[in-house]
Amino acid sequence: MTRLAVLDLYDGEPNLGIAAIDEILEKYREEIEWEHFDVRQRAEMPAVEDFDVFISSGGPGNPMEGDGIWDRKWHNWVDDLWTHNLEHPEAKKYAFFICHSFQMLCHHFQVGEVCSRDAKSFGTFPVHLTDAALADPIFRQLPNPFYAADFRDFQVVRPDMLQFQALGAEILALEKVRPHLPEDRAIMAIRFSEEIVGVQFHPEAHVRGMLQHFQEERRMVLVINNYGKKKYEQMITDLSDPAKIQLTHDVVLPTFLEKSLEALAKRSVLV
């Protein structure tokens, strides 16, 4: 049985993310057993040697700040994971990083500038694939552009290509072109190694749950007041289109899990 650790970085805030990750994992219950770790409230961290696969979640706040305890443990865990994969090519671990965790990972590896946005990204948006994505086992299965649920106050811009080259990493996706704005396009997905992938958006976004969440009157009024009726209607339309957010949900995390399981199964046969 494959062992998987879910690193919860939501700091106790109500969210749809962890439940959505669990729902995806339920489809693999016969192959995967998983455990949750409350990273920010309890400073819980999984030992790299105890698990085969890791998913590090989104969460609130500045990705470059912590309390000096949980964040240090998290960054040490990243170093342990990377070192393990370098030193044990026959027993590599697999990891997926979402939103806040992605920003923290980019800051950790110094692959780009992590900074606050002028305005919060909120809703559903087209995301554009790079040439590297066309050969990627996950992203080559998506249309270009594909659609993603994107809720963030921070972004990763201005990639350091020398650092990318040193790591062997590749940019897989960029945010939509915004010709009316002078800002750099944010990086939306990176393959850091064959085993480690990170995305800025929320691939776990559960369409049914999000529709129910945002169609509640209180939240509907809040979104319309803050972002406008047009933004709200566009988000509901994208959520209702099976070729948009639902497709991303069905492809990204499930393919990561399936490819990880395949690699682990091949390894066990060779042992």
Class from secondary-structure proportions: alpha/beta
The rounded Rg comes to: 18 Å
Number of helices: 9
CATH topology: Rossmann fold
CATH class type: Alpha Beta
Count of domains:
1
Molecular shape: globular
In helices, the fraction of residues equals 25-40%
The CATH architecture term is 3-Layer(aba) Sandwich
Separation of the first and last Cα atoms: 15 Å
Report the average pLDDT across residues.
93
Describe the structure.
This protein has a single domain (2-206, 247-270), classed as Rossmann fold (3-Layer(aba) Sandwich). It has helices spanning 17-26, 39-42, 70-87, 100-109, 161-167, 207-215, 217-227, 229-240, 245-270, and strands at residues 2-8, 32-38, 53-56, 94-98, 113-129, 146-157, 170-175, 187-191, 196-199. The model has no long low-confidence stretch (mean pLDDT 93). Strands 2-1-3-4-9-8-7-5-6 form a 9-stranded mixed β-sheet, with helices on both faces. With 271 residues, it is α/β, with parallel strands linked by helices. Helix content is 39%, strand content 25%. Helix 7 crosses helix 8. The chain has 9 helices and 9 strands.
Q: Can you summarize this structure?
A:
39% of the residues lie in helices and 25% in strands. The chain contains nine helices and nine strands. It has a nine-stranded mixed beta sheet with strand order 2-1-3-4-9-8-7-5-6, sandwiched between helices.
